[in-house]
Structures are given as structure tokens and as C-alpha cells.
Write a structure and sequence with these properties.
Number of strands: 8
Structural class: alpha/beta
Low-confidence stretches: none
Distance between the termini: 11 Å
CATH architecture: Alpha-Beta Barrel
Shape: globular
Oligomer: single chain
Number of domains: 1
CATH topology: TIM Barrel
Largest sheet: 8 strands, parallel, barrel
Number of helices: 12
CATH superfamily: Aldolase class I
CATH class: Alpha Beta
Order of helices and strands: EHEHEHEHHEHHHEHHEHEH
Strand order of the largest sheet: 1-2-3-4-5-6-7-8
């Protein structure tokens, strides 16, 4: 059985004090959770202090991006060795906001993923369609192109270390959520695609999260779907109570 993974993407939010207060509350309320992997992904500026608060806890630390070169003249970038050096374990790659606002391509996602894997970071690789693509019935075509691009050249052993996040772009930060059936349909498609690209074992063991306006009120129904293994949570991860609620829902389903 796949172990669910709930990751909080804080995006461009939280000062150092806000970050410390939030992760302290999470650590104190979730210290006995073993059924679910929990990850928080703060802004770069608070990663070290969040790491210290979470030290020896059951909550993993993630970053929101990574560059594909280790060092050099790349102003404004952050590399896998530098993230590893401050205790980061996970990294979000290819989020729709990176694609939309910063022109990230599938090739860039692929290079970032390879860099993360090379340094022992766990990539959370995001894929998803915009509203126009869904309305034109192109969802599966878009997902296939993004997956094939993101995972080009990766071995079975490397794929075993990856988490995929399906995030319909039209449901991110909009208050709209894919119905459980819509989300399940795409998750199932991704598994079928991975079986073709790799093998049935990868298809059935890789964890695929859902991301897109996840909150306590809808998380249980979403995560009860057979191919959904948790959530990549945005706004609801910025306060302790809703994020804890989502995790508790996942724990109930995992038992």
C-alpha cells in the first residue's frame, strides 16, 4: 500500500516569526503521526530556521525550486548542494506558477529533477492542464507531454524516488476543485502512462498527489480515491488548523 504524502507549499508567504509559529504548532500537534508523510515547503529565507524547529520531528523539509547547475554564475538561483547543506529533503519542481510566470519548460523540469535526484533530494514533480486545455478535451495529451518531458532519461531506480503532483491549473488558488472523479481519472491515466514508459511496478508504487484548492472540507473525499496518494496543499497550509485537518483526514483513510 502506498503511504500518503501531504506537502504544504507556502509559496511567497510567511516571515521568520510566522514560519516558526506555524511549524511549532504543526510539530506539537502532529508528533505522533506515522500513517502519513508530512512535508512543509517554505520560502528560501526561512528554510534554516524551519529546519531547526523541525529537527528530530516527523515533518520533512522541502524547497519550492532548484536549479540544475551545482555552482557558478547563476544570480538568483539555488542549487541542490546548497539545499542539501541546510537539511532540505524534498523539492517542488515544475509548479504551474513556475511554468506560467517564469517560462519553465518540460526540459527545464527534467534538468531540475535530475539535479535533485543526483544530490539525494526527493522531487515533487508537478503536472497539470489549464482551463482551456480541459475544455478542449486535451487534458490527457497535456499530461502525457509533460510527463514524458519531465521524466526523459530517468531510470526505473530514479523514478522510484519521485513523487508526482497532479495540479489542474484552473483549480489552483481559485477556490475551484476538480471533482474526486475528475482527479481520479487523471491520476489513473498517469499510472497507465507510467506502466507504458517504465513498468507496472513503478505505476503502482509511485505516489501521486492531488493539488488544487485542497482544504479539510474536500480532502477526505479526494484522498479516498484509489489512485490519489495525498495532496500538495497551497493556501490551507499557511495556517496550522486547516493543514492539520487535512493530515488527520488522510490518517483516517490510511488506517
Amino acid at each position: 500500500m502506498r503511504k500518503p504524502i501531504i506537502a504544504g507549499n507556502w509559496k511567497l508567504n510567511n516571515t521568520e516569526k510566522e514560519a516558526v509559529d506555524l511549524v511549532t504548532a504543526l510539530r506539537n500537534n502532529l508528533n505522533n503521526v506515522t500513517e502519513v508523510d508530512i512535508v512543509v515547503c517554505p520560502v528560501f529565507t526561512v528554510l534554516p530556521v524551519v529546519h531547526d524547529v523541525l529537527l528530530e520531528s516527523n515533518i520533512g523539509l522541502g524547497a519550492q525550486n532548484v536549479f540544475w547547475e551545482d555552482f557558478g554564475a547563476f544570480t538568483g538561483e539555488i542549487s541542490a548542494p546548497l539545499l542539501k547543506d541546510i537539511g532540505v529533503q524534498y523539492v517542488i519542481i515544475g509548479h504551474s506558477e513556475r511554468r506560467q510566470y517564469f517560462g519553465e519548460t518540460d526540459e527545464m523540469v527534467n534538468k531540475r529533477t535530475k539535479a535533485a535526484l543526483a544530490h539525494g533530494l526527493i522531487p515533487i514533480v508537478c503536472v497539470g492542464e489549464v482551463l482551456a486545455q480541459r475544455e478542449e478535451n486535451k487534458t490527457f495529451d497535456v499530461i502525457q507531454i509533460q510527463c514524458e518531458g519531465a521524466f526523459a532519461g530517468l531510470t526505473v531506480a530514479e523514478m522510484e524516488k519521485i513523487v508526482i503532483a497532479y495540479e489542474p491549473v484552473w483549480a489552483i488558488g481559485t477556490g475551484k476543485t476538480a471533482t474526486p472523479g475528475q482527479a481520479q481519472e487523471v491520476h489513473k491515466f498517469i499510472r497507465g502512462l507510467l506502466a507504458k514508459l517504465y513498468d507496472e511496478n513503478i505505476s503502482q508504487t509511485i505516489r501521486i498527489q492531488y493539488g488544487g484548492s485542497v482544504k479539510p472540507e474536500n480532502s477526505a473525499e479526494l484522498m479516498s480515491q484509489p489512485d490519489i496518494d495525498g495532496a500538495l496543499v497551497g493556501g490551507a497550509s499557511l495556517k496550522a488548523e486547516p493543514f492539520i485537518g487535512i493530515i488527520q483526514n488522510s490518517c483516517s483513510l490510511a488506517q
